[in-house]
Design goal:
The protein is α+β, with helices and mostly antiparallel strands. The protein is 17% helix and 32% strand. The protein is built from 4 helices and 18 strands. A 6-stranded antiparallel β-sheet has the order 2-1-11-10-7-8, with no helix packed on it. The protein has a 5-stranded mixed β-sheet with strand order 4-3-5-6-9, with no helix packed on it. A 4-stranded antiparallel β-sheet has the order 12-13-14-15, with no helix packed on it. β1 and β2 form a beta hairpin. α1 crosses α4. The radius of gyration is 18 Å and the shape is globular. It starts with 5 loop residues before the first strand and ends with a strand.
Length: 225
Protein backbone atom coordinates (compact mmCIF):
# COMPACT_ATOMS: atom_id res chain seq x y z
CA UNK A 1 0.00 0.00 0.00
CA UNK A 2 1.32 3.46 -0.92
CA UNK A 3 2.00 5.46 2.25
CA UNK A 4 2.74 9.17 2.09
CA UNK A 5 4.14 10.71 5.29
CA UNK A 6 3.03 14.26 5.99
CA UNK A 7 2.97 17.02 8.57
CA UNK A 8 -0.34 17.88 10.22
CA UNK A 9 -0.56 21.56 11.14
CA UNK A 10 -1.73 22.44 14.63
CA UNK A 11 -0.48 26.02 14.51
CA UNK A 12 1.45 27.78 11.75
CA UNK A 13 0.12 30.73 9.73
CA UNK A 14 -0.69 30.96 6.82
CA UNK A 15 -1.68 27.31 7.18
CA UNK A 16 -4.83 26.49 9.12
CA UNK A 17 -5.25 23.95 11.89
CA UNK A 18 -5.74 20.52 10.32
CA UNK A 19 -3.96 21.37 7.07
CA UNK A 20 -1.82 18.59 5.61
CA UNK A 21 1.70 19.25 4.31
CA UNK A 22 2.79 16.20 2.28
CA UNK A 23 6.40 15.07 2.58
CA UNK A 24 7.86 13.85 -0.67
CA UNK A 25 10.70 11.35 -0.68
CA UNK A 26 13.23 14.10 -1.45
CA UNK A 27 16.60 13.90 0.33
CA UNK A 28 16.06 17.27 2.07
CA UNK A 29 13.16 19.61 2.77
CA UNK A 30 13.75 23.06 4.29
CA UNK A 31 11.14 24.68 6.57
CA UNK A 32 11.27 28.33 7.48
CA UNK A 33 10.05 31.87 6.89
CA UNK A 34 9.44 33.21 3.42
CA UNK A 35 11.33 36.41 2.73
CA UNK A 36 12.15 38.63 -0.21
CA UNK A 37 14.29 36.58 -2.54
CA UNK A 38 13.94 33.40 -0.47
CA UNK A 39 11.21 30.79 -0.17
CA UNK A 40 11.75 27.52 1.73
CA UNK A 41 10.10 24.27 0.68
CA UNK A 42 7.56 24.72 3.51
CA UNK A 43 6.99 28.37 4.43
CA UNK A 44 5.49 30.02 7.51
CA UNK A 45 4.59 33.66 7.98
CA UNK A 46 5.93 34.30 11.47
CA UNK A 47 8.59 36.85 12.42
CA UNK A 48 9.97 34.54 15.13
CA UNK A 49 10.60 31.68 12.70
CA UNK A 50 14.00 31.83 11.01
CA UNK A 51 14.33 31.92 7.22
CA UNK A 52 16.07 28.56 7.45
CA UNK A 53 14.46 27.13 10.58
CA UNK A 54 14.80 23.38 10.18
CA UNK A 55 15.37 20.65 7.65
CA UNK A 56 13.62 17.31 7.25
CA UNK A 57 15.76 14.58 5.72
CA UNK A 58 14.75 11.33 4.07
CA UNK A 59 17.41 8.63 4.18
CA UNK A 60 17.17 4.83 4.03
CA UNK A 61 13.38 4.94 4.18
CA UNK A 62 13.25 7.06 7.35
CA UNK A 63 12.69 10.71 8.16
CA UNK A 64 14.70 12.86 10.54
CA UNK A 65 14.74 16.56 11.43
CA UNK A 66 17.51 18.95 12.40
CA UNK A 67 17.53 22.57 13.48
CA UNK A 68 19.45 24.83 11.08
CA UNK A 69 20.83 27.13 13.76
CA UNK A 70 17.54 29.00 14.13
CA UNK A 71 17.37 31.98 16.49
CA UNK A 72 14.48 30.71 18.63
CA UNK A 73 15.03 26.98 18.33
CA UNK A 74 13.28 23.79 17.27
CA UNK A 75 11.91 21.12 19.62
CA UNK A 76 10.59 17.58 19.13
CA UNK A 77 8.16 16.30 21.77
CA UNK A 78 9.21 19.16 24.03
CA UNK A 79 12.94 18.44 23.84
CA UNK A 80 15.03 21.24 22.25
CA UNK A 81 17.23 20.14 19.36
CA UNK A 82 20.93 20.82 19.16
CA UNK A 83 21.65 22.83 16.01
CA UNK A 84 22.64 20.68 13.01
CA UNK A 85 22.17 17.37 14.91
CA UNK A 86 19.51 15.20 13.18
CA UNK A 87 16.85 13.48 15.29
CA UNK A 88 14.67 10.61 13.93
CA UNK A 89 10.98 11.38 13.48
CA UNK A 90 8.65 8.79 14.97
CA UNK A 91 4.90 8.49 14.50
CA UNK A 92 3.00 11.44 16.05
CA UNK A 93 6.21 13.33 16.86
CA UNK A 94 5.32 16.95 17.71
CA UNK A 95 7.57 19.54 16.11
CA UNK A 96 7.67 23.03 17.59
CA UNK A 97 9.34 26.12 16.17
CA UNK A 98 10.06 29.26 18.21
CA UNK A 99 8.78 27.85 21.51
CA UNK A 100 5.50 26.58 20.11
CA UNK A 101 4.49 29.47 17.85
CA UNK A 102 4.46 26.87 15.07
CA UNK A 103 3.30 23.34 15.94
CA UNK A 104 3.35 20.36 13.57
CA UNK A 105 2.69 16.64 13.96
CA UNK A 106 4.57 14.05 11.90
CA UNK A 107 2.33 11.31 10.53
CA UNK A 108 3.70 8.39 8.45
CA UNK A 109 0.29 7.47 6.97
CA UNK A 110 -1.55 7.97 3.73
CA UNK A 111 -3.13 11.41 3.34
CA UNK A 112 -6.57 9.86 2.96
CA UNK A 113 -6.18 8.29 6.40
CA UNK A 114 -5.30 11.48 8.26
CA UNK A 115 -8.70 12.05 9.80
CA UNK A 116 -9.10 8.44 10.90
CA UNK A 117 -8.77 7.58 14.55
CA UNK A 118 -5.55 5.83 15.50
CA UNK A 119 -4.96 3.59 18.52
CA UNK A 120 -3.27 5.13 21.53
CA UNK A 121 -1.34 1.95 22.10
CA UNK A 122 -1.39 -1.53 20.55
CA UNK A 123 -3.64 -4.18 22.10
CA UNK A 124 -1.99 -6.81 24.23
CA UNK A 125 -1.34 -10.08 22.45
CA UNK A 126 -4.33 -12.35 22.84
CA UNK A 127 -6.29 -9.61 24.61
CA UNK A 128 -9.31 -7.50 23.59
CA UNK A 129 -8.91 -4.79 20.96
CA UNK A 130 -7.68 -1.47 22.39
CA UNK A 131 -10.73 0.68 23.12
CA UNK A 132 -8.97 4.04 23.55
CA UNK A 133 -8.37 6.16 20.44
CA UNK A 134 -7.10 9.69 19.91
CA UNK A 135 -8.24 12.07 17.21
CA UNK A 136 -5.63 14.87 16.86
CA UNK A 137 -7.78 16.95 14.51
CA UNK A 138 -10.89 17.02 16.68
CA UNK A 139 -8.82 16.94 19.89
CA UNK A 140 -10.89 14.10 21.29
CA UNK A 141 -10.40 10.72 22.87
CA UNK A 142 -12.70 7.74 22.31
CA UNK A 143 -13.24 5.44 25.27
CA UNK A 144 -15.42 2.37 24.80
CA UNK A 145 -17.12 3.84 21.71
CA UNK A 146 -17.82 7.21 23.35
CA UNK A 147 -15.91 10.31 22.18
CA UNK A 148 -14.89 13.04 24.62
CA UNK A 149 -13.79 16.47 23.37
CA UNK A 150 -10.79 18.04 25.11
CA UNK A 151 -9.15 21.45 25.14
CA UNK A 152 -5.72 21.80 23.52
CA UNK A 153 -3.89 21.56 26.87
CA UNK A 154 -6.00 18.61 28.02
CA UNK A 155 -5.34 16.80 24.77
CA UNK A 156 -1.56 17.41 24.93
CA UNK A 157 -1.40 16.19 28.54
CA UNK A 158 -3.28 13.00 27.70
CA UNK A 159 -1.27 12.44 24.52
CA UNK A 160 1.97 12.61 26.49
CA UNK A 161 0.73 10.12 29.07
CA UNK A 162 -0.48 7.78 26.34
CA UNK A 163 2.91 7.79 24.63
CA UNK A 164 4.45 6.61 27.88
CA UNK A 165 1.65 4.43 29.14
CA UNK A 166 2.56 2.65 32.38
CA UNK A 167 5.72 4.77 32.62
CA UNK A 168 6.48 7.60 35.03
CA UNK A 169 6.18 11.03 33.38
CA UNK A 170 7.88 13.74 35.43
CA UNK A 171 6.42 17.15 36.18
CA UNK A 172 9.09 18.99 34.18
CA UNK A 173 8.36 16.90 31.09
CA UNK A 174 4.65 17.65 31.45
CA UNK A 175 5.38 21.38 31.60
CA UNK A 176 7.64 21.29 28.54
CA UNK A 177 5.14 19.29 26.50
CA UNK A 178 1.85 20.87 27.53
CA UNK A 179 3.06 24.46 27.93
CA UNK A 180 5.81 24.82 25.24
CA UNK A 181 5.16 28.56 25.08
CA UNK A 182 6.36 28.85 28.67
CA UNK A 183 9.58 26.91 28.29
CA UNK A 184 12.93 28.33 29.32
CA UNK A 185 15.59 27.97 32.01
CA UNK A 186 12.94 28.11 34.74
CA UNK A 187 10.20 26.27 32.87
CA UNK A 188 9.53 23.91 35.77
CA UNK A 189 8.50 26.90 37.90
CA UNK A 190 6.54 28.73 35.19
CA UNK A 191 3.50 26.48 35.66
CA UNK A 192 2.07 26.00 39.12
CA UNK A 193 1.12 22.64 40.56
CA UNK A 194 -2.42 23.97 40.88
CA UNK A 195 -2.59 24.48 37.10
CA UNK A 196 -1.48 20.91 36.46
CA UNK A 197 -3.87 19.52 39.07
CA UNK A 198 -6.73 21.53 37.56
CA UNK A 199 -5.93 20.21 34.08
CA UNK A 200 -5.84 16.63 35.33
CA UNK A 201 -9.13 17.14 37.19
CA UNK A 202 -10.83 18.40 34.01
CA UNK A 203 -9.55 15.44 31.99
CA UNK A 204 -10.88 12.99 34.56
CA UNK A 205 -14.22 14.79 34.75
CA UNK A 206 -14.67 15.08 30.98
CA UNK A 207 -13.90 11.40 30.42
CA UNK A 208 -16.26 10.29 33.21
CA UNK A 209 -13.19 9.05 35.11
CA UNK A 210 -12.68 6.15 32.70
CA UNK A 211 -8.96 6.91 32.59
CA UNK A 212 -6.73 5.65 35.39
CA UNK A 213 -4.12 8.40 35.88
CA UNK A 214 -2.03 8.08 39.02
CA UNK A 215 -0.52 11.22 40.58
CA UNK A 216 2.73 10.59 42.42
CA UNK A 217 3.03 13.22 45.16
CA UNK A 218 3.11 16.09 42.69
CA UNK A 219 6.33 14.74 41.11
CA UNK A 220 4.80 13.07 38.10
CA UNK A 221 2.07 10.93 36.62
CA UNK A 222 1.43 7.42 35.29
CA UNK A 223 -1.33 6.32 32.94
CA UNK A 224 -2.36 2.83 34.02
CA UNK A 225 -4.16 0.16 32.00
Amino acid sequence: MNRTPHLLVERGYPHERGDILPLVSAPRLVLGRKDEGWEPDVAFDNAFVSRRQAEIRYEDGRYSILDLGSKHGTAVNGAPLEPFVPVPLERSARIAFAQGLVLLVFAPVRIGETLDLSPLSPPEEGGPEEARLLDPVRQSVRLNDVSYRLSEKEYRFLELLVRKERQFVGREEVVRYVWPERTGPDSADSVSQEEINSLLYRIRKKTDRHLSIESIRGKGYVLQD
